[in-house]
């Protein structure tokens, strides 16, 4: 399963990642950028439902996510109404606070159905927000902190710079 992210083309993903692992081509699903966002979101959700027949919400084995300096993940931004979306698995966003303004995103119900969510976070510019996500106890948690798979787990792969403000214990890989 594949969703192209900003700056990463599906052709690059196929060449550099998917060609190295065994995934049938019909299981690689890309968003159609030539469609209006509402239609593209509906088509993408429809295709996911075809690949996961019988599941009300598709269950991914793994979703790989990042975070923005504001704590957003996917195109789920702080205080945005899409954080409250409960019925759609894929949603359009036409008023993104970050360019481009029109996007398509997985919703929290889809992300929280995954068996494993893996966040990859690098750089000191993410250190403060990472601390807030992992150590904060806000009544209004940042979007990335809301990714809590119901029957799965969350893992964080972070570099030293991103971890620099954490006060909690972190396991360090020995290389």
Automatic annotation (TrEMBL):
It is an enzyme of class 3 (hydrolase). Its EC number is 3.1.1.31. Residues 13-156 form the Glucosamine/galactosamine-6-phosphate isomerase domain. Pfam families: Glucosamine_iso (PF01182). InterPro entries: 6-phosphogluconolactonase_DevB, 6PGL, Glc/Gal-6P_isomerase, NagB/RpiA_transferase-like. It catalyses: 6-phospho-D-glucono-1,5-lactone + H2O = 6-phospho-D-gluconate + H(+). Pathway: Carbohydrate degradation; pentose phosphate pathway; D-ribulose 5-phosphate from D-glucose 6-phosphate (oxidative stage): step 2/3. Keywords: Hydrolase. GO terms for biological process: carbohydrate metabolic process; pentose-phosphate shunt. One of its GO terms (molecular function) is 6-phosphogluconolactonase activity. Hydrolysis of 6-phosphogluconolactone to 6-phosphogluconate. Belongs to the glucosamine/galactosamine-6-phosphate isomerase family. 6-phosphogluconolactonase subfamily. NCBIfam families: pgl. This is 6-phosphogluconolactonase. It comes from Scyliorhinus torazame.
